[in-house]
């Protein structure tokens, strides 16, 4: 370990303080990425594939489950944000989570389509 002279001491302390701040900021950004990862992964998946209700609802449920798991991880900076994200997701897509009649129609259409295709394509 290097001995710091009296002239260098204030500069050395400022440098160490700056390094600690940078470390805390990087830790925060890493946790922020971890919090948003379920949402960004779902968006990438749905935008990259032909998204229909048969894929949409399982993706929504997966995002909600992953946000719940993150709440259990005790992320200290995000204890307020995580419940709000989950609540916003549930509020925005309430019809899908509660399987309201208009969503059921879409599901049944997809299931009927898959049954029809499997019957038609049988040799």
Automatic annotation (TrEMBL):
InterPro entries: RNaseH-like_sf (IPR012337). It comes from Eumeta variegata (Bagworm moth). This is Uncharacterized protein.
